[in-house]
Specification:
This protein is an alpha/beta fold. The protein contains eleven helices and ten strands. Helix 3 links the parallel strand 3 and strand 4 (82-87). Helix 2 crosses helix 6 (145-162) and helix 6 crosses helix 7 (175-184). It is globular. The site of pyridoxal-5'-phosphate has 19 residues, from helix 2, helix 3, strand 7 and helix 7.
Length: 300
């Protein structure tokens, strides 16, 4: 199914003129799916690659995880029972609406302490197998080969359309950047992943793994920057907030957990002169609208 998802590339002329660059945006936030984002490509590819439909899907993520939300919607559409191992503070005002969504989608979930995630995942698949059911465990964030390959294919299409000097995106577990980097490898476009949480070295290694899965050569250059994590996953400060406000003021919907950090990275590359006047930048929009909508009043 994933190869059927379009790569919609739009130009943002007014915001581009404001920044002195040619700004294009790949709208994965507009994939035909509720609360769309990069998890739609990754998870649909992961499910399409399964040889048989499992009796249970198991995965983990934060209460506000777009990965868990997207999986729960797809599993509901396909009628596959799902168990989510979640972590985070259930007492936040916005946690209730996040959990209500999982409940309404019919996904089973438990909220555990971060140190218990691995055990809880194991328990969920052991319980299933003791009942004679086959479970499929998807790594957090859908950090899988199928996910990386889906992004390589999407980037093949998008890069052919607009041939940018730079591709800039929010990078977390790394399969999105790895796939795009595999596609761009050997070509003129430079791919810059702006970390939303991880430090440079472990983050870069995860992206490198994903690039290999998508067929990149071992000497591929991975540009993964941790200069805009701005307090870490689920936290942000004034720099991210300013980037989010600037985006919305030009009709580009950004969020403080992912895309706002990536756009703050883009802004500082423009400010420093690393991106020169008139260069063509493809901002790969990875979603995050749900994160924006719960961002007022708490730190997420
Ligand atoms: C998950 C997510 C990312 C990070 O994608 P990775 O493939 O894990 O690096 C970026 N942006 C949004 C909105 C996400 O939900």
């Amino acid at each position: 199914m994933s190869h059927l998802l379009p790569s919609l590339v739009e130009s943002f002329d007014r915001l581009g003129a404001h920044l002195g660059i040619e700004l294009m945006v790949c709208r994965d936030d507009l994939l035909p799916f509720p609360l769309a984002g990069n998890k739609v490509r990754k998870i649909s590819a992961e499910l399409a690659a399964l040889v048989t439909t499992p009796d249970l899907l198991v995965t983990n993520g934060a209460i506000y995880s777009n990965h868990c939300r997207t999986l729960a919607v797809m599993a509901a559409q396909q009628g596959i029972p799902t168990h989510l191992v979640l972590h985070g503070n259930v007492n936040d005002a916005s946690a209730k609406s996040a959990l209500k969504l999982f409940h309404d989608l019919g996904a089973g979930f438990t909220v555990v302490a971060p140190g218990r995630i691995a055990t809880a995942l194991l328990e969920a698949s052991e319980t299933a197998s003791s009942e004679g059911k086959a479970s499929h465990v998807i790594p957090g964030g859908c950090h899988t080969a199928a996910g990386a390959i889906a992004y390589r294919d999407a980037a093949n299409e998008a890069l052919a359309k607009c041939q940018p000097d730079y591709v800039i995106l929010a990078s977390g577990t790394g399969a999105t950047q790895g796939g795009i980097a595999a596609s761009a490898c050997g070509g003129p476009s430079r791919v810059v992943g702006v970390s939303v949480a991880r430090q440079a070295q472990p983050g870069r290694e995860a992206v490198l793994d994903a690039a290999f899965w998508a067929g990149a050569p071992p000497d591929i250059n991975i540009d993964f920057r941790d200069s805009h994590v701005d307090g870490g996953y689920g936290h942000h400060g004034e720099a991210t907030e300013r980037a989010v406000r600037l985006g919305w003021a030009y009709g580009l919907p950004l969020d403080p957990t992912y895309t706002g950090k990536a756009f703050a990275g883009l802004l500082s590359m423009v400010r420093s002169g690393e991106i020169r006047k008139g260069e063509k930048v493809l901002f790969w929009h990875t979603g995050g609208l749900a994160n924006y909508l719960v961002s007022v009043g708490d730190k997420n």
